[in-house]
Amino acid sequence: MSAPSDIRNVIIVGSGPAGYTAAIYTARANLKPLQFGGYQPGGQLMLTTEVENFPGFRNGVMGPELMIEMRAQAERFGAEIVDADVERVDVSKRPFTVVVDGKEHSAHSVIVATGAKAKLLGCEGESRLMGHGVSTCATCDGAFFRNKVICVAGGGDSAMEEANFLTRFGSKVWVIHRRDTLRASKIMQDRAKANPKIGFLWNTAIEACEGATKLESLRLRDTVTGEVRSLPADALFVAIGHVPTTSFLAGQLETDENGYLVTRDGAKTNVSGVFACGDCQDHVYRQAITAAGSGCMAAIDCERWLEANAH
Ligand code: NAP
Question: For residue 75, what are the contacts with CB-CB under 8 A and spacing of at least 6?
Answer without folding.
Answer: 81
